[in-house]
């Protein structure tokens, strides 16, 4: 599968204010994008982990660290799961 890339312009001020190297900042931004897209249910766990550059297990640990549930069901989905149990 062909991988595309995304370019986000930022100034050196961002590096200074975060205290990170260019590489670490860009990796963090990839992880944050993957987490948010997962949280919004736009990406599966596997795809989000891939964008974040980590294994599924490591991505799940990152979600836990950020307080984001790995399983995010709405009330209707919970009722359906309980009914089917």
TrEMBL record:
Among Pfam families, the record links this protein to: UPF0175
Organism of provenance:
Candidatus Electronema aureum
What is the name of the protein in this document?
Antitoxin, contains HTH domain
């Amino acid at each position: 599968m062909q991988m595309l890339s995304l370019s986000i312009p930022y100034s050196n001020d961002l590096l200074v204010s975060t205290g990170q190297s260019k590489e670490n900042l860009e990796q963090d931004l990839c992880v944050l994008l993957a987490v948010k897209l997962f949280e919004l249910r736009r990406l599966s766990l596997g795809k989000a982990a891939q964008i974040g550059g980590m294994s599924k297990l490591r991505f799940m640990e990152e979600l836990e660290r950020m307080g984001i549930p790995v399983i995010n069901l709405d009330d209707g989905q919970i009722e359906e799961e309980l009914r089917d149990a």
